[in-house]
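Notes from hallway chat w/ T.B., transcribed later so I don't forget. T.B. wanted the structure written out for a chain they're using in a teaching module, and asked if we could keep both sequence and structure tokens in one place. Agreed to drop them here.
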Amino acid sequence: MDYLKMLEEGLEKIPEKVKVEERFKLPEPIIFYQGNKTVFANFKEFVEIIRRDEKHFAKFLFKELATPGVIQNNHLVFNSKIRLNALKRKIEEYLNNFVYCRVCGSPDTKLTKENRFTFMVCEACGAKNPIKKI
């Protein structure tokens, strides 16, 4: 059997699209309001699933939603009212910029700092891409 024939057979066995969502399933964000404040109740669960530093994720959300806040008792507390749809959009934006690999789309990435630059390194395909500062 020659190389090209083996290659063709191998390519035929590859599925059309590999489903990343099955293994990497994020829960629905749970929020509630306390006066003017919005509490992201399952913030800690998100941080554990995406394997990112809670301060990095929180800083992104604070900046993008244009509101200050604090991490308190495994919750993220925003100092203003935030709509659920706005929070979902910003979480998706964070995932696209800081979690999913730009080459293969895998969520199996980690952030590494080299000198003054931060890179997202994919543990699946080995791609290394610079990320923007928050």
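Follow-up for T.B.: The radius of gyration is 19 Å. Might be a good example for the class.
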